[in-house]
Amino acid sequence: ALETVDAEDSVMIITEMANNAQGYIEATKIATGTEDEMKFEIHGSKGAIRFNAMQPHNLEIYNREEISSPIGGLRGWTKIDIGHRYPAPASSFPTPKASFGWVRSHVACLHNFLNDCVEGDPGTPGLGQGMHIQIVMDAVRRSIDDKKWVSLVN
């Protein structure tokens, strides 16, 4: 039997920033065909950037200011290899031919955390950033419930 679940399956958020930049955020766990995909895209007036965790070695950028002629010029999505770019001593293990995978992501997170502890750096994201995200999520909920824009103050 199915159980009642009160968690959202998807959300679409329209944003306007203090500098008048506008944005659209979409998150879903019911997109057919995405499997275990986690990806983001950021589009601006001069270009865009996208990342897909299913292809973790690549970051793609689109520069609208690239020349567009003749025959398309240099304009288009450019794939940048970002795999295996770790600071020493992690730069040689595992080898660049090893699969990226979840384990490597977690090891990189642990490395960053421990390095921040050794260096006395508070690291990012920090508690303050986490609290800010929670405030934003609460504002989204209020906007949905009240069916109106909600302003946030820094």
SSE blueprint and pairings:
Layout: E1 10-16, E2 22-28, E3 39-43, E4 47-52, E5 58-63, E6 77-81, H1 101-119, H2 127-146
Antiparallel strand pairs: 1-2, 3-4, 4-5, 5-6
Explain how this protein is built.
The chain has about 150 residues and is an alpha+beta fold. The chain has a domain of about 45 residues. About 25% of the residues lie in helices and about 25% in strands. The protein contains two helices and six strands. The strands form two sheets. The chain has a four-stranded antiparallel beta sheet, with no helix packed on it. A two-stranded antiparallel sheet has the order 1-2. The model has no long low-confidence stretch (mean pLDDT about 85).
Describe the structure concisely for a colleague:
The protein is an alpha+beta fold and 154 residues long. The protein contains two helices and six strands, in the order E-E-E-E-E-E-H-H. It has a domain at 36-82.
Structure keywords:
single chain, 154 residues, alpha+beta, two-stranded antiparallel ribbon, 2 helices
Report the mean per-residue pLDDT as an integer: 84
H/E element sequence: EEEEEEHH
Task: Please give the oligomerization state of what you see.
Answer: single chain
- Give the proportion of residues in helices: 25-40%
Low-pLDDT runs of 5+ residues are: none
What's the gyration radius in Å?
Answer: 20 Å
For the largest beta-sheet, the strand count, sense and barrel status come to: 4 strands, antiparallel
